[in-house]
Amino acid sequence: MDFDPLEYYKVLETAYDADAATIKRQYYTRAKFWHPDHNEDTKALEMFQKVSVAYDILKDEKLRRQYDLLSLVYNKQNFPSLGSLKIYKNQAGKEDKALRVLKQRRVKPNFKKSQIIETKDICTFREAMSLVGSTARANWLGGWWAPDAFLKNIAAIQYNLRAAKAEDLDNLQLLLHNTLAYEQENNIEMAWIYANQAYLLAEKLHYTRAQTLLTLYIRELNFSPSHTVKLPRWQARELKWRQALLPFILLLIILFAIGSKITKDYLPQGYFSVIEMDNGQVMAYDMVDSHVMKVSSDIHSREYLYHITEDCLIYHGPDERYQPMAYGQANQTVRLFGYTPDKKWYKVVLDKGEMGFISSKLLQKGIGKPVPPGSKVYKDE
Question: How far from the centroid of its chain's Cα atoms is residue 202's Cα?
């Protein structure tokens, strides 16, 4: 995961956690090197300007903190303009401290080829209930009347049921964005509320870098109200039931049950199965393991040691729609336990012995960072 989308740290050739003195020193070094008065490289002027812009941001502690926080959830293509963030509001256009991103898929049937339209609505829980009902009616009653719509509709329904929980990076992006937007408007109380909500969600996602930066940010706000912050009421179970209050419920339960077996192009084939616990948490079902190709699990062997190439989430199952179970760090050493038949997902063992799935694109063979003492990943004989 890239924590420097605009490459401010890169052009200064410094680390994310560099102190102010180091950043200042690197600025003078790089600015002197790229100054067009004595550097004849064709890109010297461009690089000199980039170095100056990077330093203007990173030398200012407030702007640097904003950049670091937004870099957690934005990439280069959608990175917002620092200092001019617009506050996200509810569906009624009013400011609200209990907002979430509701992601849904709606099937638009067509006689030639149906379309799946994905939406992201910023809303309160009450507004989400209405939006879910509208999408459910469109899918269940109007999304079947095309030759290819049947399977797409099953996939869309499953996606909407899972997305109802609203605990992912899109929601963290909303919370971080509003945190800084409210601070920009000098509404420190709302900034403090959203920052604490972002911290609680980052904790649920095991996003340690976000937790670290938010701890520093909340401390720097220097705001001490008498109340504490909790994540706002967001009952995923109620949103799921909202989709079940339609005339064809019995038929669709049957279709939902067999969906994973007959879907070929839109769902992971064969090893995507889940169960839902009483607390609403979605976990990988044991059936997943029956499809994982196992490899040697000898803790003394180096043969199946890999390292993570960039910071990322590790999931309970072989699909990003599963619940994240841990947060992997760049160069962290893990042990390969097995892989899916298509080798797109690897099941790995972490230091404490927990197992999770990570995309094979994010793994490289060989040890990265040294394995800590007592790790379940590798033990040197």
Answer: 10
- Residue 173 pLDDT: 95
Which of 3-17, 24-38, 189-203, 227-241 shows the lowest per-residue confidence on average (mean pLDDT)?
227-241
Cβ–Cβ < 8 Å for 196, 229 = yes
> Of all helices (H) and strands (E), which one includes residue 315?
strand 312-315
Do 110 and 142 meet the contact criterion of CB atoms below 8 Å apart?
A: no
Which of 116, 102, 139 lies closest to 239, judged by CA? 102
Count of other CB atoms within 10 angstroms of residue 96: 18
For residue 268, what pLDDT is reported?
Answer: 43
User: Does residue 70 have a pLDDT over 90?
Assistant: yes
Q: Residue 302 burial by CB count (10 A; 0-12/13-18/19+): exposed, middle or buried? A: exposed
State the Cα–Cα distance between residues 255 and 257, nearest whole angstrom: 5
**CB burial of residue 91 (10 Å; 0-12, 13-18, 19+):** middle
- The interaxial angle of helices 188-204 and 169-184, nearest 10 deg, is 160
Q: Write the CB contacts of 321 (distance below 8 Å, at least 6 apart in sequence).
A: 159, 162
Look-up: residue for tokens 């950049």?
67
- Rounded CA-CA distance 183/351 in Å is 39
Cβ burial of 208 (10 Å; 0-12, 13-18, 19+) is: middle
Rounded distance between C-alpha atoms, residue 32 and residue 139, angstroms: 61
In 3D, which of 157, 93, 158 has the Cα closest to residue 122? 93
Sign of CA dihedral 278, 282, 285, 289: negative
Q: What is the pLDDT of residue 289?
A: 60
Q: Cα–Cα distance between 165 and 316 in angstroms, integer?
A: 16
**Structure tokens belonging to residue 17:** 């956690």
What is the pTM (predicted TM-score) of this model? 0.62
The neighbouring-strand residues paired with 349 are: 335, 355
Neighbours of 372 (CB within 10 A): 9
| Count of other CB atoms within 10 angstroms of residue 197 | 26
CA–CA dist 62, 335 (Å, integer): 40
